[in-house]
Design a protein that fits this description.
The chain has 459 residues and is an alpha/beta fold. It is 40% helix and 12% strand. The protein folds into two domains: 174 residues, Aspartate Aminotransferase, domain 1 (Alpha-Beta Complex); 252 residues, 3-Layer(aba) Sandwich (Aspartate Aminotransferase, domain 2), CATH 3.40.640. The strands form five sheets. The chain has a five-stranded mixed β-sheet, sandwiched between helices. Helix 1 packs across helix 14.
């Protein structure tokens, strides 16, 4: 057991950026102008920005050195080979295809393997993954374990896939119609919850039984590996990079957003072993992203990801990352604020349905709570509920399994005093939760509506 409880950041701050303080009245006006959609706010009008941890982290001195070293040759840049070595050191797949971010990797892969009549199962698809699957005419199916749909239930690996449900789905739909099985690590939509190696092996067995490849949406792989080390029997003394390699050994490929656990501001990749798929994906890459050794990225971005991949598996960094997120979540739980438990790796998820039982799911309690946090304290979070997941491809709407507000913590950006302020604001709002009212949508697109829809409060 560690002697001291205080969490210290395992880095020193070298550069600072001012935060503009605003009033409640200013923020109320900004909300109205933004159509009560926090994506429409200007970042300069946000005090603490917890909208996403994707591409919002602070880069290290070594990453900035890589920015200077970046080589911008169109083909075969030295930066490409440093990036390739960093990826394959952890993920030794035969083919690595760089993209400008994770959703581009998803778009390319599902364009090749998706299509009408196909079904893509996952523990839980996140928003762009689901949209890219459905854009091809395929069906995205979520098969997380039952505990993963229960915010207050304590389970060490709530991101696990229900392997019995997976086997039943494959038998019902036919293995020929299931081109791939996906597992998201950690499970973002389900509260940033990890997946165990035991579960990955069980999913692998189902896939082998039916002759179906297994891919990982590996955006937060290092955080998942840390939870495996902390919670799974037999891994307490195993180095994090070795846990990552074991995860890789169970998969046939991966999609990756380098904006998460590669600690970069942009970038991603698709990696896989299948030669035929790789050829088709590279052809689409050249058409839509760029040459296969830069994939729509500058050489300096490849350098930043290469350095980030070395830093993200550092135990001091991961201990700080997971504990600082838990610090926020544990303080809120102690104050009686309902949250997804155990606390996830990259974010704390407020249970809006439990906090606002008087607001119906189709009146978007998550959106109402997210707006209240901004109005009262300038905190920008993200609704993960019916606004994000309630719209079906046929245009119908259903309530999402959970109504959450995600507070995603950018990597190496905020200090403990910032988080203490977040705790204070959330407690203040929670104490007055009964006064909050639901929202209605007044304008929305046909897909991914949470990014651009406009709302108004229900009076």
């Amino acid at each position: 057991m560690e002697r001291f409880r205080t969490i210290i950041e395992p880095f020193r701050i070298k550069s600072v950026e001012p935060i503009r303080l605003t009033t409640v009245e200013e923020r109320e006006a900004k909300l109205r102008a933004a159509g009560y959609n926090l994506f429409n706010l200007r970042a300069a009008d946000v005090l603490i920005d917890l909208l996403t941890d994707s591409g919002t982290g602070a880069m290290s001195a070594e990453q900035w050195a890589g920015i200077q070293r970046g080589d911008e040759s169109y083909a075969g840049s030295p930066s490409w080979f440093r990036f390739l070595d960093a990826v394959t050191d952890l993920w030794p797949f035969r083919h690595v295809i760089p993209t400008h971010q994770g959703r581009a990797a998803e778009k390319i892969l599902f364009s090749v393997i998706g299509g009408p009549g196909k079904v893509i199962p996952s523990n839980t698809h996140f928003d762009t993954t689901r949209a890219n699957v459905e854009f091809t005419g395929a069906e995205a199916v979520d098969l997380v374990i039952p505990e993963g749909r229960e915010p207050a239930t304590i389970h060490p690996f709530k991101g696990n896939m229900d392997t019995d449900a997976l086997d039943a789905l494959i038998r019902a739909r036919g293995a020929e119609n299931v081109p791939v099985v996906f597992v998201t690590v950690t499970n973002n939509s389900g509260g940033g919850q990890p997946v165990s190696l035991t579960n990955l092996r069980a999913v692998r067995e189902v896939c082998d039984r039916h002759g179906i490849p297994l891919f990982l949406d590996a955006c937060r792989f290092a955080e998942n590996a840390w939870f495996i080390r902390e919670r799974e029997d037999g891994y307490a003394a195993v180095a994090v990079p070795d846990i990552v390699r074991e995860m890789a050994s169970l998969a046939d490929g991966m999609t990756m957003s380098g904006k998460k656990d590669a600690l970069a501001n942009i970038g991603g990749w698709l990696a896989l072993n299948d030669d035929r798929w790789a050829e088709q994906c590279r052809n689409l890459l050249i058409l839509t992203e760029g040459f296969p050794t830069y994939g729509g990225l500058a050489g300096r971005d490849l350098e930043a990801m290469a350095a980030g991949l070395r830093e993200v598996v550092d135990e001091d960094y991961l201990r700080y990352r997971i504990r600082s997120t838990a610090y926020l979540g544990e303080a809120l739980v102690a104050a009686g604020v309902p949250c997804v438990q155990p606390i996830g790796g990259h974010a704390v998820y407020l249970d809006a349905a439990a906090l606002l039982p008087h607001i119906a799911a189709l009146e978007y309690p998550g959106q109402a709570l997210a707006c209240a946090l901004y109005r009262e304290g300038g905190i920008r979070g993200c609704e993960i509920g019916t606004v994000m997941f309630g719209m079906r491809p046929d245009g119908s709407e259903v309530a999402a399994p959970m109504e959450l507000v995600r507070l995603a913590i950018p990597r190496r950006v905020y200090t403990q005093s910032h988080i203490d302020y977040v705790i204070e604001v959330i407690r203040w709002v929670a104490e007055r939760a009964s006064a909050l009212r639901g929202m209605r949508i007044v304008e929305q697109p046909s897909a991914l509506r949470h990014f651009t829809a406009r709302f108004e409060p229900i009076q």
